[in-house]
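Render this sequence as a predicted structure.
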Amino acid sequence: MKFSNRGLPAVATALMLFIQPCIAQDNPIKLAQLNIPHVEFDLKVDGELNDAIWQQALDVPLNIVNSPWNNKPSPVSTIAKVVENGKFLYVAFIAQDPNPELIQGFLGDRDTRWGDDLVGFKLDTYNNRRLNYEFFVNPYGIQHDSIANEMTGDTDSAWDGIWESVGKITDTGYQVEIAIPYHILNFADNDDVKTWAMELIRLYPRDSRLRISHIELDRDDACWLCQIPEITGFKNAKASKNLMLTPTLVANKNENRAFYADNDGQNKVTDWDSENDFDAGLDLRWSINANTLLNVTINPDFSNVESDAGQLSVNKTFSLFYDEKRQFFVENSEYFSSNFDLVYTRNIADPEYGAKLTGTRGDHSYGAFHDE
């Protein structure tokens, strides 16, 4: 493993261990807990909101503008519905709009439509006010997800969970259905009632971009995550302990032809010479429990990620920085983040193997990885 000059000096190989304390803080704005109903129904995510499960959901009005207004009443009506069935957390939004023709919503790639109308939520599954998941959806169901680090202020949008969403524009606005499977979340896996933290949000871009929430936020407090209310329930929620193996095989064939000159000086082509090359690899992802994840990669194939956008290096006195997009390094990368750039995984170009262990225990999180 190597480091750029953005962090520690370069070394041949290393084992990095990070232990980060949680930063739970007293909430200056005391808020009542929201109890999330548990039902036995399943849901077909189609954006229609006519399933029986929504009749038993908790209705939460979003009527407070936190930004740019300072906790003023919202000019539009929004209702969020929240319910769970032990396998999925379901959230629906009914976003009213007095002028539906002004709704900003377009089809696009994942994580690219941040300028649209959006509804979604922040979810802190450890309730330690340090990390939180973010799930947002535009009126056409385009997904935006990330993991935000309250300690560093960074948001990792390279994280892509597998979840469902459908959006639909109506005569009075738009509505969205979201289904979050528990197996993509990290949380304390037990049979007890769980206490998480959640904020429901609508982004409303018109003359100004309004951030509408169901809670007031003290904007003099830099930690907004510390202020969001707790939610309780999820007694039957079980994290996945799945074992996922991903084999890879890369085949490469090179062909060459040779020229020679005959007695007349004319060039003639010989037969083609070919060379075949096969390169196999394996990725392993094992959720040992809800708190601990093991990733192992052997002869990894990093050719399946998107290409980097070009950067100019002329007359620059510092190293270029590229975002990490490789799944082995992206997953739970927030466990290695800090206020200093200590780990820059893009320096690891072609390892023969790698292993990474991340998890949470009590009031601390930990992460270690090794590659060679």
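Summary. Residues 1-30 have pLDDT under 50 and may be disordered. The radius of gyration is 25 Å.
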